[in-house]
UniProtKB/TrEMBL annotation:
Gene Ontology MF, one: sterol binding
An example Gene Ontology CC term for this record: membrane
Official protein name in the record: Oxysterol binding family protein
Parts forming coiled coils: 352-389
UniProt source species: Paramecium pentaurelia
Length: 400
């Protein structure tokens, strides 16, 4: 099946329409479920059992690939909306720098430049190729093959998940629960305010694997770009005994004020297993290739076992054998469960009002939540100080 997701239909699994009648400055976002695979479990298992490397050998990239590398962003209405808040954001960045606070993750973005989706939901999107590749990994006892499949399931998401669309920042204690059609259960929770840390946890059907880790970011700004470094880590553990820990490369968002808008994954990503296998992928350094190309190796100690090559906008190969091709593999839908806990993201006032395009009310609700978080943070700091003094007083009393 040809699963190329064009920039006209899909960006980060969300289609966007300008809504001039009800909110002139807003954009409406809704899930394009028809572009995702929702095969039932038995069909998925058939695909897993019959999985074969792809025979294509051409150097292919999807339509959203930028000429120089990365994923381009071309919709003029969307760009206008994103850049309409550019001056405001630059002013906030300037204030942060002048105050000596270089943590740009604390900057508050106007809600009209955001989407009605929590960053916790976005985090769960990292599993959209798990039903094929991770279930395949579950069925093999070859540790290197498992590693290849985990790398593939990770890289294949980039051309979909890379996006300028900013989700809502989770508040402390916020939760999300979802699932995949193969029976995988997914959970996410915001466990820290500053730094903002999102924890996630996934369980394969019949506990066949466990997937967990965290996301937390450091951001820096240039004259016409933003660099986002994810300092978190991910881990997947298979019942066969192999554990794979891996980190993130960084993302460069360029054209934020002028010129062409695009986003790139750059830097180095490493995979470490408890079986002695390691993999290193270097993004944006392949000679005479756009920056979305990468290369790397799988090693056992100093011994090179396999070469890795590809582009996250098109395909990935191990020793010339193609495991993923954007034209042949379709992502699977992550279904977010209806809210059940009072902490579930979908119950947030800014979320619900943004989804219904009441931008003014959504902005008010967003500011209310941010003020509440600041107030709670002050109370926690005050309590910690109170407890510290109490413990010091007790120690002094015991000493006397």
């Amino acid at each position: 099946m040809n699963s190329t997701l064009s920039s006209e239909d899909l960006d980060n699994d969300i289609r966007i329409q300008q809504v001039q009648q009800t909110a002139p400055d807003a954009v409406q976002f809704y899930i394009r479920e028809d572009l995702f695979n929702n095969d039932p479990y038995d069909i998925i298992q058939q695909k897993v059992a019959t999985f074969q490397p792809i025979q294509s050998k051409d150097d292919t990239r999807c339509d959203q690939a930028s000429k120089d590398g990365g994923k381009k962003f071309e919709d003029k209405k969307q760009i206008k909306c994103m850049r309409s808040v550019g001056t405001y954001v630059i002013q906030q960045i300037g204030r942060k720098i002048l105050s000596g606070d270089m943590n740009l993750t604390k900057i508050s973005f106007p809600i009209k430049a955001m989407i009605a989706k929590s960053a916790l939901e976005k985090n769960l999107q990292s599993t959209i190729f798990f039903p094929l590749y991770i279930n395949r990994a579950v069925q093999t006892v070859d540790f290197m093959e498992q590693l290849k499949l985990v790398i593939t399931a990770t890289i294949a998401t980039f051309h979909i998940n890379l996006s300028f669309h900013k989700p809502l920042n989770p508040i402390l204690g916020e939760t999300v629960e979802g699932f995949l059609s193969d029976g995988t259960k997914l959970f996410a929770e915001q466990i820290s305010h500053h730094p903002p840390v999102s924890q996630f946890y996934g369980i394969g059907r019949d506990n066949s694997y466990k997937y967990f880790g965290n996301y937390w970011y450091e951001a820096s700004a240039g004259l016409n770009s933003i660099t986002l470094k994810n300092k978190g880590k991910r881990t997947i553990v298979f019942n066969g005994g192999q554990r794979i820990d891996y980190n993130f490369a960084y993302e460069l968002y360029s054209g934020t004020i002028m010129g062409s808008m695009k986003v790139e994954t750059l830097g180095v990503s490493t995979y470490q297993t408890n079986k002695g296998l390691t993999a290193t992928l270097k993004f944006g350094k392949v000679k005479r290739k756009p920056t979305d190309y990468f290369e790397g190796t799988i090693n056992m100690g100093q011994q090179e076992l396999c070469k890795i090559f590809g582009t996250y906008m098109g395909y990935i190969e191990f020793d010339g054998v193609r495991y993923w091709d954007h034209r042949h593999m379709q992502p699977y839908q992550v279904t977010i469960k209806p809210p059940f806990l009072p902490s579930d993201a979908q119950l947030r006032g800014d979320y619900t009002n943004l989804a219904s395009l009441d931008i003014d009310k959504a902005q008010i609700e967003k500011e209310n939540l941010e003020n509440l978080q600041r107030h709670d943070a002050k109370l926690r700091t005050k309590f910690k100080e109170f407890r510290r003094k109490k413990e010091e007083k007790k120690k002094q009393h015991d000493h006397d």
